[in-house]
Amino acid sequence: MSLSDAGADVAILRSLRAHKPTVWLKPVDTIARVRPTLDPITLADIADAVARMNRFRPALRLLFPKSGWDGQVRSPLLDYPKPGFADSRILVKADHALPMTGSIKARGGV
To answer: Is residue 3 a part of any domain in this protein?
Structure first.
């Protein structure tokens, strides 16, 4: 970590501690080190992911029978209140509302 990175981290921590809205974006060079080449996602990749999630639905339904959950991992898209963006629409994927976990980790775990 460079000194400039440390300074940015301190500024972010100060903002969070002050209960101010804060955004942290992972530096591009960090992403490149983790995954140097980003292959495009194909329709076949999407179909494979859908099939995998559908394959686990019965297991998830059995693991959480008391909830009445159908085993499908899905969360709503919510409109983001956006003062100053009158001619656009911003949607937020509400993975905090996922059944049983309230976490985006539910998708990755499956």
So the answer is: yes
